[in-house]
Amino acid sequence: MKLARARSRVRSPSRNHNENAVPPLPRHSEDRKLTKGGGRASSEQQRATTSVPVPVVKGVVTQQRIFIGDRQSYNMVEIGASTNAGDVVDMVEAQGSLKGWVGTGGWMLWEVAQDFGMERPIRSFELLADVETSWNKDKMVNIFVLKLTPLASLLRRTAIPSVSPLHSGYVEWEIKRGKWNKRWLSLREHGLWLSKRDNGKDEMFLCSLSNFDAYFVTRLHKAPKAFVFALKSTENISLFENTADYLHIFSCNKNDGDRWMERVLLARSYVLHQERNVLFNPKTTTGLSRAGTRKGTGRPVQQPLVNVGSTDLFEPGSLLRK
Question: What is the model's pLDDT at position 30?
Answer without folding.
Answer: 41
